Amino acid sequence: MVIDCERRGRRVEIVRTISELRAAIGTWRAAGETISLVPTMGALHAGHIALIGAALGTTDRVAVSIFVNPTQFAPNEDLARYPRDETGDIAKLAGAGAHLVWAPPVSEIYPDGFATRIVPGGAALPLEGVYRPDHFGGVATIVCKLLAAATPHVALFGEKDFQQLAVIRQMVRDLALPVAIQGVPTVREEDGLALSSRNAYLSDDERYVAPMLYKAICEVARGRDPHEAAEALITAGFTKVDYLEVRDAETLEPFEPASGRAGRVLAAAWLGKTRLIDNVAC
User: Fold this and answer.
1) Is 135 a known active-site residue?
2) Phi, psi at residue 152, to the nearest 5°?
3) Which member of 52, 76, 139, 178 has the lowest number of beta carbons within 10 Å of its beta carbon?
4) Of these residues, 48, 99, 153, 227, which one is catalytic?
């Protein structure tokens, strides 16, 4: 299937299978073109569109995957209600200038008998690894499979999911995968809230409070005690703070200021039934 977008003069091709994907990318490679992959779970917003823009500035061709990956959701998490809008997503991608959309069914990615899983260590163990212990195994497995299927020169991920980015970079290094991993800065609302598909779950009152998470991590980056900042979030209306910590920006080990290495403030906190994550450099 091909969708035209007159505004950008682009055509975006829609493929469902790995064989169709490899045929399209094989044509590009035969022509000597460079290829970016932007993996997504759909429900696209301006943050995803920023990834497309960065990819267009990096390589000749941009492929985007849309796949809500079941293996990174725990049984008590929001897989069933995760927002989905494939038709709207494809229209946004056509308008953004993507060349190809790969939207496979679950059976294409995890066929009957699928029994292999990556179990990452290192950067996957702290923070999210404590509160969602199987999450990064699902992330690493699907990203490895996406990269193997698409064989891009570059894959782009948002820095909003900073620990995920660190885990993927580690996996690519450890497995010597022939792809460059590029992080793209977080896109925010005017009040500082990081764009996320899960923001749609917030009530009006919760949406008013949500930017306090960004304010808190910025204050910690400027020297405020993380425990004080976490207490301030509870006072502001957050239900629970899973973590608010300063970590080494590469390894995610506890940050040592005297090391001369870059640090990162990372946080995860609950507003009602919605869990928000965010991070900033320090």
Assistant:
1) no
2) -75, 160
3) 76
4) 48
